Sequence to fold (460 residues):
Amino acid sequence: MNRLRTLTEPFKIKMVEPLKLTTEEYRHNALKTAGYNPFLLNSDDVFIDLLTDSGTGAMSDRQWAGIMSGDESYAGARSWRHLESVVKELTGMPYILPTHQGRAAEKILYTLLGGKGKVFLSNTHFDTTRANIEYSGAMALDLMPPESRDPQVDLPFKGNIDLEQLVQQITTHGKENIAAVIMTVTNNSAGGQPVSMENMKVVRNICDQYGLLMVIDGCRVAENSYFVKHREPGFENSSYENIAKEMLALGDAFIMSAKKDGLVNIGGLLTLRNEDLAMKCKNLLIISEGFTTYGGLAGRDMEALAIGLKEVFDDDYLHYRIRSTAYLGEHLKNKGIPVVWPIGGHAVYVDAAKLYPNIPVDQFPGQRLVCDLYQKGGIRCVEVGSLMFGKTDDAGKLIPAAAELVRLAIPRRVYTQSHIDYVLDVFDDILELRTQSKGFRIVYEPPFLRHFTALLETVS
Ligand code: F0G
Fold:
């Protein structure tokens, strides 16, 4: 299809879900009641929900038809066989295990590979990946090149792993202690930035050289394929699906939270090449998730996922998906909002420390932006800064996170361009009031993952 300059959704709407636009006063009170923590808001009170792109997408009419024809047999269900064949074709791997979501697959694989004394190396471990590895007693090291850590440097593949550091860490810890190399594609915690095929191929060679297992955490592998096709020489004429196949062919194992590029609301996958490891994983799957042909999913979920994994590689869908995220990011940048650059696949990240220079880091400028966006426009998003990753030292002083970012994650096929234009309008209000905004102090925090349940109050 010829691309029009106006970005349009390559779908029409068959079913609608009403949204409630509340008053600013209502939202002010809702925020106060929620302890200035939008995780504690009722979703009915949110107008545009950009908290996550995980499990929040809209399914197609074909997927809903699949829901109706899903086979709910306990063992050997038709829907399982459909899913298995689609995933085998995509990954080229013979052993396919369904799980209820991504972290369940992580729990199984990293329990088996991890343990005290083991080390995992990655471009960046996602939070749940790190948590599962550390819970097993092992260590998780993130190996990003220094230049990719700069939010302003314009590089095509800022999600890559630093290859020199990778070899150095293997030598330092000894190859026998390296449990796996995990490539997160796209690199969520690094701004949804893509990983190049070249980087993946070199990682494969390094893994072969040292006899290491290469795991691909590929919940956004289709979005990554878009960037490879448009930014990496040699892929201009390849289809998105073939690019993903070529990349997944490099891995020994593939983990996927299907709640992203699976285009479903729940689901996960663990796929493997090695029979022995697959058998061990299957045994753990049976005691934690369910039998090997459903693994925590209903037959209808598997049917919808089998269809979603095909739809996600559609040219028009992927173009719209990546360009609509970029549209938000580019327009924010034009307004003078500091954003992490270039714009990644599933989210736009705002540098809140830069936007609110009068709010010190220990008063959480990111959380201020999150709360201002909710109060002004009913928009919900998440702080990825010192509230999420900061620690308190023995003297009660904050050890801040590397950056004070706010993530605006875009659910798939849910909001229209005018919703996104509305978000841009609300940022005009943010620019006007930012110098009057006050920071926060924490009044309650749990011992771990504090951002989910912490309660805050405004600093007077
Ligand atoms: N790996 C990556 C790269 C992820 O982004 C996520 C989830 C997971 C694993 C875990 O999958 O949620 O299905 O258990 N990311 C979500 C997010 C939660 O908001 O970015 P899950």
Remarks:
- The CA atoms of residues 112 and 277 lie 9 Å apart.
- The chain has two domains: 24-53+314-458, 61-311.
- The mean pLDDT is 96.
- The radius of gyration is 22 Å.
